[in-house]
């Protein structure tokens, strides 16, 4: 198969507002992470009807470990009339082949043909995408991005990345990444990719935890939620810097794509309204004008958000 860009087309006769079952069919959603498979059955309006999850040894290298976990979690689809199954996978994926290429710290997922396995298990068509990219589809069909033609969905926390809907299409060119390795500081720390100053070196949980430890915050005090709630000036300054670092990447995305709306997922939700408002005000301060002033909103809780994205992949598929 040619490795060309496949636009995610919208199917005109599928209306997510309709009650499930009218034309037959519910949505299957699967999330594949190192050591964990989550599955959910959703209505076309995005209501979760049933969930299941199964664990596997992330250190193991035998792909049958993953097969067994998929089988266990996919039992939630038994006897259902599925429109399809969307898979949100960690790591590097090949959406055309329906395969996971590589996931750090999970050798059993390397090269795993997750789409073929789930198609055998569910009897339904299966589409696979990177989890940071599908999040935007959850927001587009069921969340804060509903009705919009362009916006961005942002994964924060241990995983950092941006998914972009532009003029109704998800920007997902083969080989494209989710932005975590954009260089945001010329002489910054070394990144896991071997280069210096990537966005993820300053805007993920690891950075926050390490800086918090330097200021004497440890354990439960070193989380975004605790730092936001703290009266300590050092905590407040750290939260400000974390928001600024997040905006280093978002401002670039805004300049290139004029997304207008940014939906935050993951750790940012723990920071609540205070953190959201900080990110928005920094982003607006960096805006160069011309076009919609950027707005920042909080998305669904992390685990549901990704599953909604996977379900959105089904509605967006041809
Ligand atoms: Zn990097």
TrEMBL record:
InterPro entries: ATPase_NBD (IPR043129), ROK (IPR000600)
Entry superkingdom: Bacteria
Family from the record: Belongs to the ROK (NagC/XylR) family.
Protein name: ROK family protein
Native species: Streptomyces drozdowiczii
Lineage, top ranks: Bacteria, Bacillati, Actinomycetota, Actinomycetes, Kitasatosporales
């Amino acid at each position: 198969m040619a490795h060309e860009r496949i636009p995610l087309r919208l199917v005109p006769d599928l209306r997510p507002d309709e009650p499930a079952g009218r034309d037959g069919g519910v949505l299957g959603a699967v999330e594949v992470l190192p050591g964990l498979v989550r599955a959910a059955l959703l209505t076309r309006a995005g209501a979760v009807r049933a969930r299941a999850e199964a664990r596997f040894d992330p250190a193991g290298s035998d792909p049958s470990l993953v097969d067994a976990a998929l089988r266990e979690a996919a039992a939630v689809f038994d006897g259902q009339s599925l429109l399809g199954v969307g898979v949100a996978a960690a790591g590097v994926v090949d959406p055309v082949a329906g395969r996971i290429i590589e996931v750090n710290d999970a050798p059993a997922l390397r090269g795993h043909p997750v789409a073929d396995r789930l198609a055998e298990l569910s009897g339904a068509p299966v589409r696979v995408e990177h989890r940071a990219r599908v999040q935007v589809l959850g927001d587009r069909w069921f969340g804060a991005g509903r009705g919009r033609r362009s916006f961005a969905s942002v994964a924060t926390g241990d995983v950092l990345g941006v998914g972009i809907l532009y003029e109704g299409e998800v920007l997902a060119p083969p080989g494209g990444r989710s932005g975590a390795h954009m260089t945001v500081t010329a002489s910054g720390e070394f990144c896991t990719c071997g280069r210096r100053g990537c966005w993820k070196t300053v805007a993920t949980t690891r950075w926050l935890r390490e800086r918090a430890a330097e200021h004497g915050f440890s354990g439960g005090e070193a989380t975004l939620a605790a730092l936001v709630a703290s009266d300590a000036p050092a905590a407040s300054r750290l939260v400000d810097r974390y928001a600024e670092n997040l905006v280093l990447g978002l401002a670039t995305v805004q300049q290139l794509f004029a997304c207008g709306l940014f939906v935050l997922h993951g750790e940012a939700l723990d920071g609540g309204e205070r953190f959201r408002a900080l990110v928005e005000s920094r982003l607006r301060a960096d805006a160069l004008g011309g076009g919609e002033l950027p707005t920042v909103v909080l998305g669904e809780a992390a685990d549901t958000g990704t599953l909604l994205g996977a379900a959105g992949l089904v509605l967006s598929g041809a």
